[in-house]
Design goal:
Elements lengths: L1 H5 L6 E4 L4 H8 L3 E4 L11 H18 L4 E3 L5 H11 L3 E4 L10 H9 L2 E4 L2 H10 L8 E3 L11 H10 L6 E6 L8 H11 L6 E6 L6 H16 L6 E5 L3 H10 L2 E4 L8 H8 L4 E4 L2 H10 L2 E4 L4 H12 L2 H18 L2 H16 L4
Parallel strand pairs: 1-2, 3-4, 4-5, 5-6, 7-8, 7-10, 8-9, 10-11, 11-12
Length: 358
């Protein structure tokens, strides 16, 4: 969304949690921010909190008088939808993750009230279409994510390598949350196989560190796995990184690995290709779609550490193949994830809402 807002050809105001990096970045872009906390309590836990949320959001709508409300994430979607419907404002909704048919009536009502549903991949669009009634199927749109590409200056790359004592090591990188669905253990197991032939191969795990008990427990399991395989010194956890540091980290990778069991799009692949870094990803959903479309990387079965290791090895020992794939991925991102083109497509979707009945 930030890439879209940077390239926008329309006025925008954003309702989001206040006080964090997102609010500061939006303010830097000159965008009005209405601070509001999302998803803090369930309705049963604290119905009063939901009432206050609804009244505050309704006041924002009354003050702003928007032409359209865009729901980017699912937090408190019923309250946001109800407020927009009562105000007579059309809704554009993003389906950020793989779409599963809603089971609760309130969730079905919310999706059906959206005048447009934006999907990050053809796979997700087909999932939405398989559920939408035939008369509403024109509301589903596939827009690949936008990415404002920023090349990393050589000095930033050098500084990052020095900060993490990477030296001349060959870097396999993972970027994302420390979440079990990301199957990071596959990356560690694959590294153990790769190091039998490339002794200076190293795994850099970038991101995570939100302090949750689940994340801490998973990180401990990953550390114990690496220690048990005798490669603990070759696995580094960076924790949270700023956007600039994350981009610098990706630029240091020789190969970017995404072993998730499911991805609606695979944002990390796009970010790696933007830096001309080849990828090895799970042969699932959005990863398969954009990897095959771009030619920017290779695929391996979910959880198959040996197959991942083979694909990683092929790229690490064949630098020309790796470079060619990275450049193919970069060209695909430049063509398909251009923020200016994305903004134009998004504006077209918004315009379609104004002539469409609710």
């Amino acid at each position: 969304m930030l890439a879209l807002l940077q390239a926008r050809r329309f006025e925008a105001e954003v309702v989001c949690p206040g006080g964090g990096d997102l609010e500061r970045e939006l303010q830097r872009l000159g965008i009005t921010v209405y601070p509001l906390e999302f998803g803090k309590y369930s309705l049963r836990q604290n119905p009063l909190w939901h009432l206050v949320f609804y009244r505050r959001f309704s006041r924002f709508l009354k003050r702003s008088k928007p032409d359209v409300v865009v729901i980017n994430l699912d937090g408190n979607a019923p309250l946001v939808t109800l407020a927009a419907v009562r105000a007579g404002v059309p809704i554009v909704r993003f389906s950020r993750f793989e779409f599963k048919p809603p089971t609760r009536w309130i969730d079905r009502w919310c999706w059906l009230k959206a005048r447009a549903i934006i999907c990050p991949s053809e796979l997700v669009k087909q999932q939405v279409l398989s559920w939408l009634p035939p008369k509403l199927q024109s509301r589903a749109h596939r827009l690949y994510e936008a990415y404002a590409n920023c090349q990393v200056p050589p000095e930033a790359n050098v500084a990052f390598r020095q900060a993490w004592s990477l030296g001349d090591d060959r870097i396999i990188g993972y970027v994302g949350r420390l979440h079990r669905g990301k199957r990071i253990e596959t990356a560690i197991e694959a590294l153990a196989s790769v190091r039998k032939q490339i002794g200076n191969a190293r795994l850099l795990i970038v991101g995570g560190d939100n302090g949750s008990p689940n994340e801490r427990a998973y990180k401990l399991e990953l550390e114990q796995l690496a220690a048990g395989l005798g490669i603990r010194e070759a696995v580094s956890f960076t924790g949270y990184c700023s956007a600039e540091a994350m981009t610098a980290a990706i630029a240091t990778f020789d190969v970017c690995m995404l072993p998730s069991e499911s991805e609606s799009f695979g944002m990390v692949l796009m970010e790696a290709w933007a830096q001309s870094v080849p990828t090895v990803a799970s042969d699932v959903s959005g990863c398969r779609e954009i990897t095959l479309a771009s030619g920017g990387g290779k695929l391996a079965p979910v959880g198959d550490a040996q197959k991942f290791a083979e694909q990683l090895m092929e790229l690490l020992v064949n630098p020309q193949t790796a470079a060619d794939m990275g450049l193919k991925g970069q060209a695909w991102v430049d063509q398909n994830c251009n923020p200016v083109h994305y903004a134009a497509q998004f504006e077209s979707v918004m315009n379609s809402c104004f002539s469409r009945p609710s």
